[in-house]
Amino acid sequence: MKRTRAFSKASRAVAAVAAVAGLTGGAIALTGGAAGATTLTTVSLSIGNNAANAAGTGATGTTNTATYTVTFALPSAAALTSVTFTVETTATTTGAAITPTGLYIPGCSSATATGTGTTVTVTLTGCSSSGIGTTFSIPVSGIINGKAGPFTSTITAKAGATTVGTKTVTKSLETNKTPVTVIVPDTLTFINGNPTGITLVPIPGNSQVTAAGVTLQVKTNAVTGYKLSACMTPAHTLKSGSNGIPALVTPASSLPVTTATSSFGAKAVVNTANGGAQGAYWTSASNYYGYPTSCANPGATMMSNTHTTATDSVVVTNAARAKPTQASGVYNGTITYQVTPHY
To answer: Which pTM does this prediction carry?
Structure first.
């Protein structure tokens, strides 16, 4: 029985030591928890102008600058010395400055702000200890917003080297620009003043017969202009069966009077007031020319311009002459106009 009692006393002693050890361990854990930072309460970050800059820092055009106001409450009593907060990664903080209006720093005598990179540091001076739940509101102006989209800002309050509390909030900058795209299509308008046809009745052996002038117009937004050419098929000769009236060979102010040759030709007079010019083929407004066989021939150009135009025009006057021995008949051909724009 004595041995049993002795063992019981020893057991109680061990248990007491263990209890003390457990309390000591608990005290160590509590001490460690008090040394760590806690979360700031009632935290907000207000951005006075949340319009983003198109490309963030260095964006051209309007620069959107804003006042960032940090508001928070202390999680524990402290005499603050600084508050920091971060901004969007492409924002510029070098112009940061305290805005007196709205500044609320209870127990502190003054505040100054500086910016480095994406961090704004507010230095507080002369601060006495403020109790738990004390609210601070610090507006900082001169921050150039970054690019559009959400970003996180970490707000940290310190008392000397000790972090009193920290909190991360999410904000967003919105684009204040709407891209506009206007597509202007290529345009070309050709107006043929006489699409129905031309009829000439030359008396064999007499002088030329001249038709009324046909006005051709070209309108285009081709930035380097256009070329209007003219040609006649078949083979630039008016045909009646096996007989023909050929195109004028040598330019002249009138169709030549000769007993050997009939001829058909045209005179082109360009209105040059808007930049239109006589073409490379119809170089003189005073002469008649025979129509080329192909409009693709660069030499078939009747009128041209080197820029956009809305009013270019040329008056084309066709004429025919029949030699004394020209066989009677209905002679047909087709004049073709071709406009080639240069956009």
So the answer is: 0.62
